Amino acid sequence: MDVLFSRRSVRRYTADPVEEASWVEMIRAGMYAPSAGDQRPWHFILSRDKSVLEAVPSIHPHAAMVPGAAGVIVVCGLPSAGRHPAMWVQDCSAATQNILLAAESLGLGAVWLGVHPREDRVEGCRRLFGIPEEAFPFAMIACGHPAEKPAFPERFDRARIHFERW
């Protein structure tokens, strides 16, 4: 449970590179997320190319931290990949959360940058990362060694728990 409660959105990184094995382990964690009908409609793009990382803020208004990250993982959905095409958003959400938790467990810092359903961000990602029309960029995850540890706010709110009925 510690990983769940200690995970924070990290937006400042050191210059240290992230080992290839850690990138693979994070993406592997994404692939172990639950998905509707076990269809796993996801694909992942890993970019560590500095020129690409520097271009990301031009396609996403909240991505100023990406050029300072060791890399970015783009989580993409392929709705045509299974029997439940409308569920790709939920499936990619679960994969994204798994990647964030894996980053925390590896001692890394990461932040989720929403892409879908913002059409300008979707098209920007398509162009920058060469994503085909049948696939949809869902989110980007900037990641690196943390240069900060954001505060731990209490988020539990018992008033939002409804037993049996609202």
Concise overview:
With 166 residues, the protein is of the alpha+beta class. It is 31% helix and 17% strand. It has a single domain (17-147), classed as NADH Oxidase (3-Layer(aba) Sandwich), CATH 3.40.109.
What does this structure look like?
This protein is 31% helix and 17% strand. It is of the alpha+beta class and 166 residues long. 34% of the residues are buried. The two termini are 27 Å apart. The protein has a single domain (17-147), classed as NADH Oxidase, CATH 3.40.109.10. It has five helices and four strands. It is globular.
Spatial order of the strands forming the largest sheet: 1-2-4-3
CATH architecture, by name, is 3-Layer(aba) Sandwich
What percentage of the residues does DSSP assign to strands (E)? 15-25%
| Residue share in helix | 25-40%
Round the Cα radius of gyration to an integer and report it: 16 Å
Distance between the termini: 27 Å
Task: Categorize the overall geometry.
Answer: globular
Note the run of SSEs as H and E: HHEHEHEHE
Summed up, the domain count is 1
Structural descriptors:
single chain, 166 residues, alpha+beta, NADH Oxidase, 4-stranded antiparallel beta sheet, 31% helix, globular
What secondary-structure arrangement, pairings included, does this model have?
Elements: H1 2-6, H2 20-31, E1 42-47, H3 50-55, E2 71-77, H4 88-105, E3 109-114, H5 119-129, E4 136-144
Antiparallel strand pairs: 1-2, 2-4, 3-4
Helix pairs in contact: 2-4
